[in-house]
Design goal:
The complex is a heterodimer of chains A (181) and B (193). Chain A is α+β, with helices and mostly antiparallel strands. Chain A contains 6 helices and 5 strands; from the N terminus they run H-H-H-E-H-E-E-E-E-H-H. A 5-stranded antiparallel β-sheet of chain A has the order 1-5-4-3-2, sandwiched between helices. About 17% of the residues of chain A have low confidence. Chain B is an alpha+beta fold. Chain B is 37% helix and 27% strand. Chain B has a 6-stranded antiparallel β-sheet. Chain B has a two-stranded antiparallel ribbon with strand order 4-8. Classes of the chains: A alpha+beta (181), B alpha+beta (193). At the A-B interface, helix 1, helix 4, strand 2 and helix 5 of A face helix 1, strand 1 and helix 2 of B.
């Protein structure tokens, strides 16, 4: 009887551990924003809706390989954190390892680009979300950074997979240029 | 005497353990998957580096995402059918000699393993050295590796699963695979006839 009890306790403990890991990773967007703040000693800004609309005219339209400007993110799905005019000094390899470590339970790293000359880092992660897909794009530049999470349809996932780098940039531009509906 | 409940619970736990161990070791057992993490340190020296990871789960998503109605996507879908992973590392350097022969050896050692064959009749339109390897299992191709190196550039492409040079050529510029300019000399000779 004691064997059964031990086994049941072990199974329950295993289940509780798994659930808590999943729950802990539930709000990865905020975790990543906090991680950037702690790693680089910076603070993200809340962007007023009108300011965001104003940014629309300042930038070019989304650039997607082989096509014209188009929306990638599902309407209303954009989560955005912007860091402006702050210093992002730090070892990018160390940052990359921390970011991957923080997200590897629930997200799949798709593409990671580092440019030492431009001091620019881009990370794109993916995960399934029912019929749709979540895409998380982290961009770090010497003085600015953005974290964008969007939902995309299978059709737009195909566009992302065909040209991960270009589409990742387009998602970030779209989130910072186009006002959320 | 053990009750039916005990027996079932034991069997269930054994099955769960087996599934977990299988999942953990599946990756390690895939012989065509190269371990490329030994090159990660080069990112710190590189002016540009790109790391693409499309594992089996993402490949399944990709197959679902690509449409059958769009001609280009239909073609990609056909090419990647059965492919279990695409892994790419690209390093571009400003100065020469930033990667060592020891770095290359960590990859070549794996490509000298059982089943891997280097194709000799392959060149690239681009400058530099190009090595293409296939992992054969009888007549079946189970994986492909490309090592393209120049004094200021190092590119590794590893495709896990059934793939050949024609398929690779179709994937150049897609799914994070760079343009390698690969040409099969055999095919070129055939075309010249």
């Amino acid at each position: 009887m004691s064997t059964i009890r031990t086994l049941i306790v072990a199974v329950v403990l295993l289940c509780v551990t798994c659930v808590s890991v999943v729950q802990g990773k539930g709000d990865d967007f905020n975790s990543v924003v906090k991680m950037i703040e702690q790693f680089y000693g910076v603070k993200h800004e809340e962007i007023p809706f009108l300011a965001k609309a104003g940014m629309k005219v300042a930038r070019t339209a989304a650039r997607i390989k082989g096509g014209t400007a188009r929306r990638i993110a599902e309407a209303g799905s954009i989560k955005l954190a912007v860091f402006e005019n702050q210093d992002f000094n730090g070892e990018f390899i160390k940052f990359r390892n921390s970011l991957n470590g923080a997200l590897n339970q629930t997200w799949q790293p798709l593409i990671q680009t580092l440019s030492a000359t431009e001091e620019e880092q881009t990370y794109i992660f993916l995960r399934e979300a029912g019929e749709k897909f979540n895409v998380l794009v982290v961009t770090i530049e010497p003085r600015d950074a953005t974290v964008v999470q969007v939902n995309v349809s299978p059709k737009n996932l195909a566009i992302l997979l065909k040209d991960p780098e270009g589409t990742g940039k387009a998602i970030t531009e779209e989130a910072t240029i186009i006002d959320q509906e | 005497m053990k009750s039916l409940f005990q027996t079932k619970l034991g069997a269930l736990l054994t099955a769960a353990l087996f599934v977990t161990i299988s999942a953990v070791t599946a990756n390690a057992q895939e012989p065509s998957r190269l371990q490329l993490s030994s090159l990660d340190h080069l990112a710190a020296k590189a002016s540009q580096s790109v790391d693409v990871n499309i594992d089996e789960r993402l490949m399944r998503l990709a197959s679902k995402a690509f449409s059958d109605t769009d001609a280009e996507e239909r073609e990609i879908k056909k090419v990647i059918a059965g492919v279990k992973g695409i892994y790419v590392k690209v390093f571009e350097f400003e100065a020469e000699g930033q990667y060592s022969s020891a770095d290359m050896e960590t990859i070549r050692t794996q490509l000298r393993g059982p089943g891997w064959t280097r194709l000799v009749n392959v060149t690239s339109k681009k400058e530099g050295n190009l090595e293409v390897y296939l992992l054969m299992n009888g007549d079946m191709v189970n994986g492909l590796a490309v090592v393209a190196s120049d004094v200021k550039e190092l590119v590794i492409v590893n495709i896990v699963g059934p793939v050949d040079l024609d398929k690779l050529a179709k994937l150049e510029g897609q799914l994070g695979i760079p343009e390698l300019g690969i040409e099969s000399n055999k095919k070129k000779n055939d075309d010249e006839k």
